Amino acid sequence: MSESLSLKEILQNQRKYFRSGVTMDIEWRIHQLKLLKKTIKKYEDNLFWALADDLGKSEFEAFTTEIGMVYNELNNAIKHLPKWAENRSAEGGSIHQYPGKLETHVEPLGLVLIIVPWNYPVQMVFSPLIAAVAAGNCVAIKPSDLAPKTQKIVETIIKETFEKDHVRFFIGGAEVGRELLKEKFDHIFFSGSQEIGKYVMHAAAEHLTSVTLELGGKNPCIVDESADIKVAAKRIIWGKCLNCGQTAVAPDYVLVARSKMNELIDYMQYYLDEFYPNGVFNNPDYPCIINETQIDRLVGYLEEGTVLYGGNYDKDKRKMEPTLLVKMDVFDSKVMNEEIFGPILPIIPFDKLSQPIAYVGRHPKPLALYLFTRDPGVKQLIMENISFGGGCINDTIFHNNNTNVPLRGVGQSGFGGAYHGKAGFDTFSHTKVILKQSNEIELPLRYPPHQKKMKIIRTMMTK
Questions:
Q1: Residue 76 burial (CB count, 10 A)
Q2: Which of 126, 313, 314, 392 has its CA 20 to 30 A from that of 178?
């Protein structure tokens, strides 16, 4: 570790810094967030370059899905932090607490660990970090080492912004993450795969540490007969191609009314040709797959169905064409049982709406669901019968584009809190309930002797 300190010594220094009380001051926290915004702006061009190198992101996509969202998160926290952190009167006091009054006091958790993935290496570092700093915590961050250029710029930003014992950035591979997870934290925030999420949860259980898991999953698109098929095709393709499909809330597969399947596929091909008229391999608007290992994994899925469009790839450029896949084994194929996390889109027809409801219901609850319909009855039926983290009606992805709205999974797609805006602040905070009791008025009912008081107390506590 840096400065010749052991991991334990670094974390001990962070705990000491937290116990000093400096992070408790609200104006100090706001100042830290303003400094962070200033430093990110200083290195914005460096981030554009790094994101292009690591993930092939255009400046437009890098700003709209990464840097711009961080600015929104910062602006929101700076503006609303005093209100989020204020002590408040609490409702719900009972007559036997009279004349006391209930209050809520918000406090930081302490030293928290944030483990982030490679697919959004700017947004997924800074969004939870902003929430943790706004809540008054000290923070240890473990980024993915699969986006090394971006990781280096983010490290520079953090070192220039924060005191070293306030926020620490731990660079390294999986072994660094494992060593961190052996230590005691007051909360762990993890975004990534379900497999690693299980490991994180097991490690946290050793210390009875609370966790937030944001895990993704197989996010369905359901397109019924009443949908505007042209709009559905355009928005599904856009959502699938964003970050080359490497998005936790990306559309994973499409369930479409059989009578509309051919029309939907025709429009999907039309928009793919319109978005990328000269193909994707030399197109700066189309991102890269993170590495060759992931390309090999994705190529394996192509053998499990019939490719209607795309399917080509270039390992040197780390690019794979958007691919429409049909005629898969929907029960036994890997492509229909694993999170694809790439630009392959399986398309499956259905005859009755009960079929997609049953199909989605047989699988773990997804992080997102996208429904395309113009029928209010269909909307109600899907909302009442399928559980999922969040989603859109007649769109994809955009429910995650508002930093005031919490993002959270359900079941195997994630749990233990949320992030974005106040939801993130609450995830990294603890709310204490305090009863402020009077010294002037005394209710003798609670004190012995209790004889002859049962009738009165029963009346008070049951009506």
A1: 22
A2: 126
> Three-state SS for 335?
helix
Angle at which helix 26-42 crosses helix 148-161, to 10 degrees, equals 140
CA 430 – CA 427 distance, rounded (Å): 8
Strand-pair category, 306-309 with 101-108: unpaired
DSSP 208: T
pTM of the predicted protein model: 0.93
* Cα–Cα distance measured from residue 389 to residue 117, given in angstroms and rounded to the nearest whole number: 19
> Does one domain contain both 132 and 70?
yes
In terms of domains, do 119 and 226 share one?
no
Name the strand (E) or helix (H) holding 372.
strand 368-372
Q: Which tokens is 410 given? A: 């359900």
> How many domains does one find in the chain?
2
Q: Is residue 155 part of a domain?
A: yes
Give the torsion sign (CA, 43, 48, 49, 54): positive
Chain segment 307-319, per-residue pLDDT in tens: 999 999 999 999 9
Tens-digit pLDDT profile for residues 132-191:
999 999 999 999 999 999 999 999 999 999 999 999 999 999 999 999 999 999 999 999
State residue 349 phi and psi, 5-degree precision: -85, 155
Determine the residue type at 290: I
Q: What whole-number distance in Å separates Cα of residue 26 and Cα of residue 135?
A: 9
Note down the domain range covering 267: 220-403
Radius of gyration of the CA atoms of the chain, in A: 25
